[in-house]
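Exercise: predict the fold of this chain.
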Amino acid sequence: MNLLEVKDLSVSYGKFRAVDQVSFTLAGGQTLGLVGESGSGKSTTARAILRLVEPAGGQILFGGQDVIQLRGADLQKFRRRAQMVFQDPYSSLNPRRTVAQTVLEPRQVNALATQGWLDRLLQRVGLLAEHANRFPHQFSGGQRQRIAIARALASEPDLVVADEAVSALDVSIQAQVLNLLADLQRDLNLTILFISHDLAVIRQICSRVAVMYLGQMVELGPAEEVCQRPRHPYTANLVSSIPGSSRTVPLIRAEQKTSGGCVFAPRCWKAQSVCWQQRPPMQELESSHEVACYYPLTVEEVVTV
């Protein structure tokens, strides 16, 4: 059953459309990766889902309830059930508050029991009870991110949005935090929307992946299948950039502007006239694998990219 349904979500900043009619679903207890280059709109999409920025259009259904219509106490209840872990734990944690104050605050705000919760929560994320009275600057980057995860879990959410949650960490610490998130997802039946520019990281933790480019969704499907058989030319570019990948893609064209057509057409080696004139709809190629492309990569081309 879907916990989250995003339908034709758009976000604008003045005349600039940062997110343009994005749609996807996320089943309860699953992990969906949202991947794309910097500026693709993935973080803006996440913030719109949590109502940290106001959508310009579309629907965000959380447990069947339209988040965009929520106000006051109803919005507060939703925010208890949907939490975010930000990219930089140092700037997202208050340097003047101890770990105990930081982690317990969401429970206090939401009138949840606090007795005995702190030690269990710290243990759950791999920290010690003795860490409770320390301040953020006394921890390593990986430990600070564990504190941020504990804070997100404190209100007992159904959905956690991890926005580039490991990109500021070195590779060995990244792996530890990714393993922690995977364990939490399994043990707590947690639903995770995991945002990253790194397809290799997405592949490691997510069951499904949604690929964004310039505010639009271009491919959506099972993570392993999208990584092994990318059908959109842009996704093929992302796959070829994974360290150790033996795949190559043709040289992209020079950047040009397109009006009303495919947003990737200026960079696509397969683009033809229709690509410049009309936005391609999402189409299902195989079971649960969708792509927004008039000329998706064939099986033969997938082997060579």
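Check your answer against the key: DSSP finds twelve helices and twelve strands in the chain.
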